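Follow-up to my post from last week.
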Amino acid sequence: MSGHFSFTLAATDGKARTGRIDTPRGEIRTPAFMPVGTAATVKAMLPESVRATGADILLGNTYHLMLRPTAERIDRLGGLHRFMNWDRPILTDSGGFQVMSLTDLRKLTEEGVRFKSHIDGSEHWLTPERSMEIQRLLGSDIVMCFDECPALPADRDRIEASMRLSMRWAQRSRDAFGDRPGHALFGIQQGGLDGDLRAESAEALQAIGFDGYAVGGLAVGEGQEAMFRVLDTAPDMLPADKPRYLMGVGKPDDIVGAVARGIDMMDCVLPSRSGRTGQAFTRRGTVNIKNARHQDDPRPLDEACACPACRNYSRAYLHHVFRAGEILSSMLLTWHNLHYYQELMQQMRVAIADHQFEEFQAQFDAERAQGDVSPL
Amino acid sequence: MSGHFSFTLAATDGKARTGRIDTPRGEIRTPAFMPVGTAATVKAMLPESVRATGADILLGNTYHLMLRPTAERIDRLGGLHRFMNWDRPILTDSGGFQVMSLTDLRKLTEEGVRFKSHIDGSEHWLTPERSMEIQRLLGSDIVMCFDECPALPADRDRIEASMRLSMRWAQRSRDAFGDRPGHALFGIQQGGLDGDLRAESAEALQAIGFDGYAVGGLAVGEGQEAMFRVLDTAPDMLPADKPRYLMGVGKPDDIVGAVARGIDMMDCVLPSRSGRTGQAFTRRGTVNIKNARHQDDPRPLDEACACPACRNYSRAYLHHVFRAGEILSSMLLTWHNLHYYQELMQQMRVAIADHQFEEFQAQFDAERAQGDVSPL
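User reply:
Got it. Predicted complex:
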């Protein structure tokens, strides 16, 4: 591969932005939603089907992959792209977030985190240096700094100490990453819900210098209102000429609200996880396919949706395969949800380019307010 | 739909036969393997993917569908084809075999079988007349007679009494089926491992007259040797100008042996069920993908196979997703197994047409004798 990592802003509308990230593995249209391929697979989807939904980039999880099948094994097999049959860009997280959530199984020091595997109890270390090494072995296109992320609510001292540790780790991540043309390293802003800490973090990151900047430490229990309050100012603290990535978000209305506030990239397990539990996201809100009201309904989930679940099957069928515990239920609903998310991103990209983002938001809200179709 | 059900024999080689069944919903090339779509889905497969493996026809299970979502509901929704998005032929079993296997939950009389649902314990009746009604509501293209099928070993009196009951039910099935152009009714030969009873059953069925004839009561624990002994004579007792269907068979070598003995159609859950438990069928025998020897193996399951699992993934990856409990493991291995089965059928059809079936069998045996690839 040749080529470099670059971000080009094409248009803004209010704070909302659209553009493109170019990488040696292909273009990422922004705002971008990244489906999550935790264990080297977007659950219940072939990668060509994920691509068919419109996804330009996937997210892989360092924590899961380092434990199984291990980064060294993936490296020997030619890297994560070849391993999982996805030749377009991959962003990997640093492992930090998932390790921190192993509350009873980890020990945090200045050096890094010692933890026990949830799979077999074996002991492992993650440090900024080791996280950079793992993400290099995986062949990640967009590498995330190793950081600490406290669950909210937490008191200010805890948030401040954690943010400053993350900034020291950001410097160590930058040093360990080195110079890798065509690969990007993103810093992660922390600071919880505190504007001053967010500003301090943003300044520290820019002093180090990154190819992109994430807003971290949100979607950890604070609720949408608090998250949006942070997003009213946090993205503006980050450089306008670099992509801004909101980690782990979210529901469709979270995503629209984040884009409205200047976010360019997002990821979340929600569309795939919800697909497996029978929740479908549609223009008209969430549909719970296991509800008995669907059992005789010949209509598609959404008559305006072009995904295979909506083109080829009735609600009655989707209800049936969910109730029968069939794998096809997870396959079809995951496909639908990922399709819906990507279509939402595409509509936002067009609306921003056309300077119609407010109109888009009004229609988004109006369709959701209608609610799901009437009972038969 | 217009058109009629017909069977055309194109070539024979020894006892092996190749030809085609024409139905208003399309052609079925014989010998044919029918993937099983128990609950209105071939597990872990989109129907278009099942078709892509080369399947011309699916099997649906009356027992499962009558309980959930019910035949009446499927009928209201436009029939099984539309319900499950498969517009080609569907064969449905009669429910008899599965009801009989509910040993503790059913009561058998001359009239039929009363049984309790494995899902919710609710009570149901199956009779020849009700089975015909259900299969009509489903919209089945090839309908099977309602029969009784004792597990083997069983004593001769039990087999004889059961076979004669099945023949009385065959007449009732024929009467209840009526005249339905474009739809076929198949009789089912019983008689266990006893040649005289098989002959009596074949004669009774022909006296009634059916569009095709199944060899029933095998693959119920008797072993391949005993099954082949029956198949050395049973198919010859059935009319040469009608399709002969061996129910519930089997492993690849069972299938080749059955075709060699004059069988035209088969069905089995084995390729899909094995796919979900990590067993892959290949030219060189069965590969257990969960075995640790695959964990670093960059080679495909079978370098000569054109299925997506073999084209796009290493054994190491298939091992990983199986171990990680990922749905994709079931998807890929099921696809591979169904592809392998359909390729086997296609090779047999060509070999029979070319009068090379013995050579085909010799190569089939030789490749299997080689065993799986050498360890790395």
